[in-house]
DNA sequence: CCAAAAGTGTTGACTGTACACCCATGT
DNA sequence: ACATGGGTGTACAGTCAACACTTTTGG
């Protein structure tokens, strides 16, 4: 068997980045400015470069394309269907990213389209198999929400109970009972109360919580 | 940015193949007959060849190395840590495979080590990061067992309730109550009764069930 | 008739769900 | 004083867990 028979595919990293904003679960999309799929929306992604792991490549892509530094990243799946990229065999190692809103302002850079957030309920046509990637990421996020602390990655370090509940309601796309939610969270033991409160609103100040027992 | 900067890694496919045999969850290992890690156990794997997807490569590897044709395959994770293969950047796209026991007899082939089943409780030192791959596969299998039909892949098409329970007990590594198990399975609706029974044992014949409502 | 696994219900504990009012603050 | 979200308990229903005996076959 000669070396020639091996397939050394080009590898790209594509990232489904979610955040919760205005009571909606949103995903970050860019507008492609190159063929193929020019002027079609896509999730941010880029080629894997020498010396990178897929994870560091994902972090670089998010920094370059969206100015995002602090982010939760989880590898999802490797998409390798033949023909998924018209240019040839390109493997996409996909990641889910979660960040707290608001995202940093992206200064308009040369040759880089400004990324935009779209509600997952109103996703436009996407390039390549990116629709499938977003669906996969969403299923994973929803699946892990209830038994892990993954949801806390879209919250600031200190948060109120209603902010937390809003995250759960938004990601699961259903309303939850306030008292039952509180009971469940308390018994799961993911969060601890702080001595801080969030005031300045025109209602009773809310206690601030943080992750960790 | 020149084409030279892209990393086009070599890609291998590694498979954690499980079966349930003699009340134990077993994983298929081969003995490596080449460097690196010569004479160390490893999970079956092989290079991705031109024209293959990782899935078809995994199927080919299982056919070539273990004579296995019919198999459940699920992609797990892509391992890309630098240095995971001393020869250079090699990405491993990993799969979990499940088959019913007994496995087909593997005719001893030239240059191919006979694969052997090992209890997951007694896994020897493994090559590369294969220990991590097996752990990951096991966690996935256990996690999906209770809310999917993944466990049925280690059973023949027709099976008795106690065979089914044995699979669950073995994979979860704990004993289950017979009546509660039956109730839960019946209400999950994964299985349907057939008109066949499995006799010939020196005890009361057991009804045979099959997957599907 | 004995050995072996098949098959079958009930009870109490626990967990999840539904539901309504008072509280603390800013304006 | 009022508008706004913050914060709290109870009762019912459904699910889960524990538990032992009878049945059917082969030897």
Task: Give a verbal description of the structure.
Two copies of one chain form a homodimer. With 213 residues, chain A is of the alpha+beta class. Chain A folds into two domains: 9-145, Nucleoside Triphosphate Pyrophosphohydrolase; 155-211, Arc Repressor Mutant, subunit A. In chain A, 24% of the residues lie in helices and 28% in strands. Chain A contains four helices and nine strands; from the N terminus they run ββββαβββαααββ. Chain A has helices at residues 54-66, 130-145, 161-172, 178-188, and strands spanning 10-21, 24-31, 41-42, 45-47, 72-79, 90-98, 116-119, 191-198, 206-211. In chain A, the strands form two sheets. In chain A, strands 1, 2, 3, 4, 5, 6 and 7 form a seven-stranded mixed sheet that branches. In chain A, strands 8-9 form a two-stranded antiparallel sheet. In chain A, a hairpin with a 7-residue loop joins strand 8 and strand 9 (206-211). The N and C termini of chain A lie far apart (56 Å). The mean pLDDT of chain A is 94. The interface between A and B is medium-sized, with 24 and 24 residues. The structure holds a DNA duplex (27 and 27 nucleotides).
Please give the structural blueprint:
The structure is a homodimer of 213-residue chains.
Chain A lengths: L9 E12 L2 E8 L9 E2 L2 E3 L6 H13 L5 E8 L10 E9 L17 E4 L10 H16 L15 H12 L5 H11 L2 E8 L7 E6 L2
Parallel strand pairs in A: 1-6
Antiparallel strand pairs in A: 1-2, 1-4, 2-3, 2-7, 5-6, 8-9
The structure holds a DNA duplex (27 and 27 nucleotides).
């Amino acid at each position: 068997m000669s070396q020639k028979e091996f397939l050394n595919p080009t590898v790209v990293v594509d990232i489904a980045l979610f955040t919760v904003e205005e009571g909606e679960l949103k995903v970050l999309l860019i507008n492609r400015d190159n063929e193929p799929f020019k002027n079609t929306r896509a999730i941010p992604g880029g080629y894997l470069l020498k010396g990178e792991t897929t994870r560091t490549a994902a972090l670089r892509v998010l920094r370059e394309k969206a100015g995002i530094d602090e982010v939760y990243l989880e590898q999802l799946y490797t998409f390798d269907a033949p023909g998924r990229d018209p240019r040839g065999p390109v493997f996409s190692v996909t990641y889910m990213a979660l960040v707290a809103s608001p995202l940093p302002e992206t200064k308009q850079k040369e040759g880089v389209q400004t990324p935009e957030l779209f509600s997952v309920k109103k996703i436009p046509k996407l390039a390549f198999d990116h629709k499938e990637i977003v669906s996969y990421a969403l299923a994973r996020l929803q699946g892990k929400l209830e038994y892990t602390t993954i949801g806390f990655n879209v919250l600031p370090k200190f948060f109120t109970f209603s902010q937390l509940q809003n995250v759960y309601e938004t990601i699961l796309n259903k309303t939850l009972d306030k008292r039952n939610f509180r009971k469940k969270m308390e018994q799961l033991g993911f969060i601890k109360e702080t001595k801080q409160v969030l005031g300045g609103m025109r209602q009773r100040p809310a206690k601030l919580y943080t992750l960790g027992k």
